[in-house]
Amino acid sequence: MGSIFDLSAAVRLYLLSCFVVSVDFTLGLGQSQDTEFTFLLPAGRTECFYQTSTKNGSLEVEYQVIAGAGLDVGFTLISPSGYKLASEFRTSDGIHTVEPTEDGDYRLCFDNSFSKLSEKMVFFEVIVEGQPGDAWGDEEWADMAEPESMVEYKLEDIRETMDSVHRHLDRSRQLQTMLRAFEARDRYLLEDNLWRVSFWSSMSLLVILTVAVTQVYTLRRLFDDKRVCKP
Amino acid sequence: MRSCKKIKTLPTGYALYFHIGETEKKCFIEEIPDETMVIGKYRTQLWDKQTGSFLPATPGLGMHVEIKDPDTKIILSRQYGSDGRFTFTSHTPGEHQICLHSNSTKMALFAGGKLRVHLDIQVGEHTNNYPEIAAKDKLTELQLRARQLLDQVEQIQKEQNYQRYREERFRMTSESTNQRVLWWSIAQTLILIVTGIWQMKHLKSFFEAKKLV
């Protein structure tokens, strides 16, 4: 009965190394650095952030205004050579990608000068690819840890761990579906609310008008009746 | 065979930087679940008028870091040097506010009032120091990588639990708004009808008193 354990040690080692390499590829060899900040932008101010990048990389900027009257902010993206790559006036969110990037500092500015009173809370994320030394390569991982020994039970260990990860991810997906359903329900509830507010406001208006007309009519009837009755 | 083990730390890529004025306070918000560790690292540079560039800052030029929890209670308020590293672990889920301001008053003299701050804030499983974990638990390479995957997934789960709690609060707010709208509309209609009847009765008795009807 041929099974994996009948193979020679050399072949097993080879299979394991193949597995390691494929795991490495799935974990992502792309080196990218992800920075995100949520900050308060006072009224009437402009705040700028700078990101250094290397030649022929890529830069992605995504921003969103989370709080503050109007939920809008002005945004500009300026390249190291001073060229204005993006300029938006009073938008609530945006996403910009620069590829390939120049060598130097890119400047992102958020402008709240049009607002006299309200402070904005802005969330932004900068993803830079092609930076040196962001992710660990194979050698660094191997250096950090003890050398591998005993190949036989390793596959079993790996399978168990991967199973556990798989189960957790499944649970994550289930929770996400549940949350999505709740969110949809809340949205419908709010839409119903809106309809109810409109309906009852109209009813109120109708009642007001009816009451006003009835009042006027009753008054006039009081006068008319007496005039008729008096000789 | 490896006789000496090199403990390599992740080399820092280029972090985001910004300029800060003398008495200016910059605040960043981190919305995180509970029991999450946050590590912030910053590096300052001073503008040198002579060379026309930014140089590493002189010691004595420090930054004051103040961190508030979601109940606006201060959990960290400390002075750090020109290069600093601050850590905190959240005990309540919600919006934590990290504020930085420079403590120096001499900056205007030296630097023309400009200080460059490189800031990097890591949350959750990004704070784990893998070489240290490998050495402590004596893990092999695959075990270490699997450990990293598990940490990542754990963080995702924590984040989702927090989302569920936030959604519940949102749902409660929404339902109370709904109730209020309904009751006020009914009350308003009743008030109007009652006012109308009262007005008519009052006017009728007034006219009768004045012998007009």
Automatic annotation (TrEMBL), chain A:
Keyword Transmembrane helix: yes
Membrane topology value: Single-pass type I membrane protein
One family name in Pfam for this protein: EMP24_GP25L
A GO CC annotation given for this chain: endoplasmic reticulum membrane
Span of domain GOLD: 46-128
Keywords: Endoplasmic reticulum, Membrane, Signal, Transmembrane, Transmembrane helix
SUPFAM superfamilies: Supernatant protein factor (SPF), C-terminal domain
Main location: endoplasmic reticulum
Segment forming the signal sequence: 1-30
Gene3D superfamilies in UniProt: GOLD domain
Cellular compartments annotated: Endoplasmic reticulum membrane; Endoplasmic reticulum-Golgi intermediate compartment membrane; Golgi apparatus, cis-Golgi network membrane; Membrane
Transmembrane intervals: 197-217
Family under the similarity heading: Belongs to the EMP24/GP25L family.
Protein name: Transmembrane p24 trafficking protein 1a
Automatic annotation (TrEMBL), chain B:
InterPro entries xref list: Emp24-like, GOLD_dom
Record's keyword terms, sorted: Endoplasmic reticulum, Membrane, Signal, Transmembrane, Transmembrane helix
Transmembrane segments: 181-200
Keyword Coiled coil set for record: no
GO cellular component: endoplasmic reticulum membrane
UniProt domain GOLD: residue ranges: 25-123
Membrane topology label: Single-pass type I membrane protein
Family listed: Belongs to the EMP24/GP25L family.
Protein name in UniProt: Transmembrane p24 trafficking protein 4
Species for this entry: Hucho hucho
